[in-house]
Amino acid sequence: MYKTRSRRLLLISLMLCIYSFGISQPPRGPFIISPQIHTDKKVTFRYLAPSAKQVLLGGSQFGAAQLPMMKDSVGIWSVTVGPVKADIYPYSFTVDGVTVMDPANVDYFPNERFKASLVDVPGDTVLIHSMRDVPHGTVTYEYYPSVEGSTGSLFVYTPPGYDKATTKKYPVFYLISGTTDTEETFFKVGHANLILDNLIAEGKAIPMIVVMPYGNPMARIAEQTGRAKPSDVVSRDGEDAIKRAKLFETDLITKVIPYVEMNYRAIKNRESRAIGGFSRGGGQTLRTSFGNMDKFAWICCYSSYLSTPEMESSFKNVYENSERTNKELKLLWVSVGTEDFLYKPTLEFIDFLKSKNVNHKTLISSGGHTWMNVKNYVTQTVQLLFQ
Question: What is the CATH number of domain 138-382?
């Protein structure tokens, strides 16, 4: 009698739990596939919003900056674009005036502000930044003691075989992303690790460590001390931009490099250190390397520049004795796209180097201030480093 009653109470309790769990869950809508990449390279984007009056696809790479989407009978908005050239593209939706990520897509663009979703359109042949059946390196997320008592963060790529060749040391490439990007961007969007894996497997790049730091220590310090995040700089050449670049330089030279060389098997000389960066990171690259010529022999500037007045006021050491600079630098690389909003000042910087007889390599590509271009620039330059 007692056992029967206990079983009955247990069954009732179980049914109540199931009922309670069921009514506590929000109603589920239909399963959404977005983005959907078709065999003809067209891409369909979908967003569930039965009550919305308008949904737009954001991303000028697919045509208009805001493409209207159509709603079906169950409230799924969709639009098909393309064929789309193989690459990685950011996109978003604007729902009744509010910009949102794609909730059906786990891939996103790391950023200090809005994080767009990402779609990776494969090529007919496997692209250099795509996953291939080759030996892969390791990407590690690291924390380190940074400037002004803050805790910094960075990604470190170690090449295939690093863990097995326990006595081998490697050169290091310090790779800095752009304005509002994070330490994750060269990994998640730039696919620097896969580019290196593939080029190393092809024998086109030598094995190296790649360090990807966060380029905005001022914002990190503000966040960790409870202060408001500083606004973006007004001018790339202004006093504020130079001040922030100096803080990053201090962090890289006095904190990041010592941390990496203490914790990884890095070769500790200037001939085995390279530095590169995109946009703001390109400016930080030039200022840091020109101000520390004893630290770097390889410099890669992607879609950025230094103005003539800044060169003349701060970096005469680079061009007044160009013969010495040309001996010290193994590579000074500057690249930019013809549609980049920094195209003109970058060309002026290149002309300045030419006028001072400072040796450099350039790549003027098509396209704009995009990570599509950056992946190409990284691919080209890592094949030259440490050779």
Answer: 3.40.50.1820
